[in-house]
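SAMPLE LOG
Freezer: B-3
Tube label: C17
Construct: single chain, 276 aa
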Amino acid sequence: MELLELRKEIIQGLKVELPELVDKFNHFILRNLPSKQNSVVLMTFNKETANLPRECVVKIFRTGKGDNEVDILKKLKNQNLFVPEIVFYKNPYLILEKVDGINVCDFINKNLANRESIDDLESGIKEKIVLCMINLAKWLGNLHKNNLVSNNSEVIVLNKGDTRLRDFIYQPNEGIIYGMDFEDAFEGNHLIDISWICCALLDTNPGIFELNDPKIKIELINLFLKSYYDHNPEFKFNFSYFAERLIDNLNTVMRRRRINLSLDKKDFIKDISREI
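STRUCTURE (predicted):
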């Protein structure tokens, strides 16, 4: 949707509750933010307002899942997980604080170009990437541990859902990870979230589709998995289930990208099982 149309929609939907939207002396601009399902924009005012910060994120739900996301955000905030503050909500409009930082996908991959191993990285960069992976594992581990449903033959938890590296914002100087986007959260095996994170490590550039040997990404998967289970030692790791989910996820990604390739499960699991 064009920004002008979104602007009109936001003003029409929220002008009663947020009169600053029609303040002719406090103009605001919009910038599109990535979203597969909803309309998401960064809203920036030219000066302070009575009800809103100068910069905030506006999410207009096209999926009907606004209430679910707001409930999860409130729950996780009460559990002291780093998630955006809710500034205002009126279905389908959710206004959130703008979280400064860089998404984990970009932070990791921009530093891996022409590197075969994390040991090839400059020491300061390596330290920050390792800390990013450890803190991402801890963030996800806390989400799962705080929202454990059962721990019998399977570890059933609240999964973030549609879990990709871009859903996390990293603040390198503070070493803090923020989780974003929870409208697809659901209860299920904890390895569903984990396998999607590992899939995102493998399929983002430079990854399995660009590298003859994605050793550096396997190293990051190892680090992520070790950190997660060090943090949640009471959770059982089922490698067979994990590997099947990982391959299925990679094949899903290839279908989405129209990559004419299908990973052979036996061969691929054999190749990565030596490393993990």
